[in-house]
Write a structure and sequence with these properties.
The complex is a heterodimer. Helix content of chain A is 24%, strand content 36%. By secondary structure, chain A is of the alpha+beta class. Chain A starts with a strand and ends with a strand. By secondary structure, chain B is mainly α. Chain B folds into two domains: 42 residues; 208 residues, MetI-like fold (Orthogonal Bundle). In chain B, helix 2 packs across helix 13 and helix 8 crosses helix 10. Classes of the chains: A alpha+beta, B mainly alpha. The complex binds adenosine-5'-triphosphate (ATP) and magnesium ion. Magnesium ion binds next to helix 1 of chain A.
Chain lengths: 347, 279
């Protein structure tokens, strides 16, 4: 079936190295999300898989077949583009059927598959329209239907929802996930929206400056970030960091507090905790509240601990005023440690 | 938008704006139509009326000048030559120019900027300067006095425009559309014929017509490089110089009308090129 293996793929544009030695395996029928900030190389990697870009070095295998020297049409993939790329001179029907007509399928088979995928994406009533007569969300549906109608082994999506409004995005997110699970297709989905990534992915590959920093399930990426970058990138607001100095073995001094931490003779570490894993208590970090934002479901307090920016998500019933000194204690099992030299997590 | 709502909202500025708008339209139409109209009147008038003043407002429908031309020896051949040369120019400049425009818009290659500049530079050499060496070369190669030879020269004149117009047309087609076609089973060629070509056809047509008109209007090279197979412009230049005024008008009219008819026939593609909806 359609297991994707990316082996030692690197890409340079002139002197600029966009991808460094990428190694990634995506299992058959898995929904893999490539997540990362703008410019980190997500689209480049996707386009290399699609065959729209050539890797400088490395190999791409799909379903046990090496495909990096094949043209896009022979790779068994189909792609959904950020700007949908719905052909303006063809009706919705002909758009969805475009790939099937290229395969020279008989007319009734084309009609059957177009109608079926249009049904899946709820656009049966639009089949006669042209792209100019569709809304952004409808165009998006046409683009997905066109990709699905091919019944590909692998479907590649490059930020397909980024041009939609928040409400529609949420709706399409759920729908897309359902349709893809049903179609039993292996999917690679590029986004820079971490909520989208968390909610849709079987696994997330977090990318940073042309490298995959961590590839793991959403909850793993969230709970056990493998590097400082991931910890600071995932989660809104992101993780808090404080410098830690070694005290006794297994004890670390963090902002005047003694914390249990990893043993071993590191010179210094970084202490990390998620804002929602902090509680008000009698002992703990002395935090001076700077900005208080009531967000309805909870209260976001931006404070200063030991001169460092520190955020806490607290119960929305609490009354906190700027300038007030809070005592915050971290939930012990949620504390993480990073090596400032390598930026990697330390167990 | 109706006049009623317009006057409800802001009667003064809207009314002034509208008057100004109509006045500009009338002015521009007059700018183009009046000279052509006078040409028409003078063509359809008897020689006496042409030389008199003031001019009548309505043509007399005296077909004397035109029938004279129709019967004039070599006239129809010249007309035919003009059409042949212009058609060849049209085809050649698109066949050569469009791929160049595509390459310029889609590929990165060393010297791209220089190439674009050089294309424009071909227009920097005035034709009279090139005419003598061209004539000599054409005589040597046997291309002189042939429709094809002249079409080659006209193609050279039209190509810079063909390249630049098609370059901007191709650049206006998002790369994603082509890429989508590739992932849907197209090769570079089928993606071009099934997606790009239908989308730029109106623009290609417009630029083809532009090439046609360049050739149709060109007189210098035509006069120098042809003797027996004269095109209409060269033929009329040769013969009208010494003709009476009414025949000059008729000759001018014969030159203008085909170009007008041609442009009128493809006007919707021209509008499409300028981004005005046509449906
Ligand atoms: N054709 C190209 N020529 C030169 N540099 C390129 C080219 N394509 C991409 N790059 C560079 O490679 C890097 C990665 O680009 P890429 O499009 O993969 O980013 P991305 O992660 O998809 O970002 P975004 O979220 O903004 O789409 C960027 O720094 C970009 O400038
Ligand atoms: Mg991108």
């Amino acid at each position: 079936m359609a297991r994707i293996e990316i082996k030692n793929v690197a890409k340079t544009f002139g002197a600029y190295q966009a991808l460094h030695d990428i190694n990634l395996t995506i299992e058959d029928q898995e929904f893999m999300v490539l997540l990362g900030a703008s410019g980190c190389g997500k689209s480049t990697l996707l386009r290399i898989i699609a065959g729209l870009e050539t890797a400088t070095t490395g190999e791409v295998w799909i379903g046990g077949r090496r495909i990096d020297n094949l043209s896009p049409k022979d790779r068994g993939i189909s792609m959904v583009f950020q700007n949908y790329a719905v052909f303006p001179h063809l009706s919705v029907f002909e758009n969805i059927g475009f790939g099937l007509r290229m395969q020279k399928l008989p007319n009734d088979e084309v009609t059957r598959r177009v109608e079926r995928t249009a049904g899946l994406m709820h656009i049966e009533q639009l089949l006669k329209r042209y792209s100019g007569e569709l809304s952004g969300g409808q165009r998006q549906r046409v683009a997905v239907a066109r990709a699905l109608a091919m019944e590909p082994d692998v479907i590649l999506m490059d930020e397909p929802l980024s041009n939609l409004d928040a409400l529609l995005r949420m709706e399409m997110r759920a729908e897309l996930k359902g349709v893809l699970a049903e179609s039993k297709t292996t999917a690679i989905y590029v986004t820079h929206d971490q909520v989208e990534a968390m909610s849709m992915a079987d696994r997330i590959s977090v990318m940073h400056q042309g490298e995959i920093v961590q590839a793991a399930s959403p909850i793993e990426v969230y709970r056990n970030p493998s590097a400082e970058f991931v910890a600071g990138f995932i989660g809104n607001p992101p993780m808090n960091f404080l410098p830690a100095k070694p005290a006794d073995s297994g004890k670390w001094a963090v902002a005047g507090q003694m914390m249990d931490g990893p043993g071993g003779g590191s010179a210094s570490l970084k202490f990390a905790i998620r804002p929602e894993d902090l509680r008000l208590a009698d002992t703990g970090f002395k935090a001076v509240a700077k900005v208080v934002e009531p967000l309805g479901a909870h209260l976001l307090v931006t404070c200063e601990v030991d001169g460092q920016l520190f955020r806490a998500v607290l119960d929305s019933d609490l009354k906190v005023k700027p300038g007030e000194v809070l005592t915050l204690t971290p939930q012990p099992d949620r504390v993480r440690w990073f090596d400032p030299q390598t930026t990697l997590a330390v167990a | 938008m109706t006049d009623a709502t317009a006057s409800d909202v802001a009667p003064d500025t809207r009314a002034t704006g509208r008057t100004l708008y109509i006045a500009s339209v009338v002015f521009l139409c007059a700018w183009v139509i009046v000279p052509i109209y006078f040409l028409l009147i003078n063509t359809l008038s008897s020689p006496e009326t042409v030389n008199s003043f003031p001019k009548p407002f309505w043509p007399e429908f005296d077909l004397g000048s035109l029938t004279f031309f129709a019967g004039f020896a070599g006239m129809l051949t010249a007309l035919k030559n003009s059409v042949i040369v212009a058609a060849m120019t049209m085809v050649m400049s698109i066949v050569i120019g469009a791929p160049a425009g595509y390459a310029l818009s889609r590929f990165e290659f060393p010297g791209k900027g220089l190439f674009r500049l050089l294309i424009l530079l071909t227009r920097a050499f005035p034709l009279p300067l090139l005419a003598l060496p061209l004539a000599v070369m054409f005589i040597q190669t046997g291309l002189d006095d042939t429709a094809f030879g002249l079409a080659l020269v006209h193609t050279t004149l039209a190509i810079p425009f063909a390249v630049l117009i098609t370059f901007s047309l191709f650049s206006g087609i998002p790369m994603e559309l082509e890429e989508a076609a590739w992932t849907l089973g197209c090769t570079r060629l089928t993606a071009f014929t099934k997606v790009v070509l239908p989308l730029i056809l109106p623009g290609i047509t417009a630029s083809a017509i532009f090439a046609f008109v360049i050739s149709w209007n060109e007189v210098f090279a035509a006069a120098v490089l042809t003797i027996e197979n004269r095109t209409l412009t060269a033929f009329l230049l040769q013969n009208l110089d010494t003709s009476p005024l009414h025949l000059k008008f008729a000759g001018g009219f014969i030159l203008v009308v085909p170009a007008l008819i041609f442009i009128f026939a493809v006007r919707k593609y021209l509008f499409a090129m300028w981004g005005i909806a046509n449906r």
